Amino acid sequence: MSLHLGDTAPDFEQDSSEGRVSFHQWLGDSWGILFSHPADFTPVCTTELGLTAKLKDEFAQRNVKAIALSVDPVESHKDWINDINETQGCTVNFPIIADHDRKVSELYDMIHPNANATLTVRSLFVIDPNKKIRLIITYPASTGRNFNEVLRVVDSLQLTDEHKVATPGNWERGNDVVIVPSLQDEQEIKERFPKGYEAVRPYLRMTPDPKTNWSGE
What we know:
Elements: E1 13-14, E2 21-22, H1 23-27, E3 31-37, H2 43-54, H3 56-61, E4 64-70, H4 74-88, E5 96-98, H5 103-107, E6 122-127, E7 133-139, H6 147-162, E8 165-166, E9 177-179, H7 186-192, E10 198-201, E11 204-207
Parallel strand pairs: 3-4, 4-5
Antiparallel strand pairs: 1-2, 3-6, 6-7, 8-9, 9-11, 10-11
């Protein structure tokens, strides 16, 4: 099954390190990050899971739940979690799916025969509260994920869902944004963007970040 941006994230029920997970029910009205690992006790993934645990407050601020996946069984996951906690100085605080039958891997097209016929590739999905897939990134086994980039994309998605803007290259919270080309009504622009805008070109109109409070307070 090949998934694309805007598709509904496939639902599933599977065992995990925190018990049985019914994915859509578990996700509820939160955003979700589902990311896969080739196997337990792999070095790059050990560092990633530790980093994810340490980012719990950052995810919570954005209403994001993280859930990992590996094809090994639950007992192996629990042993691996002990290693992760000890070596990464953290406490793993999210489920790791035990995809021993490859059900979820196949639903999410995580088996790439040309990369490896049996192991999941290292894919990451950002899923919104409507269960729509908003981002797909697939990494090679040798390259650790950049979770700062994942958080940046979530910030962009949440901002652009709320306001009629897009975010330019290398955008981060608080930086100027782009007014979408489809918005042409000057009165609406004034109401939406009271700080004004700069028309670099007719199609490139920059305006200050319309979200003033990023802390969630």
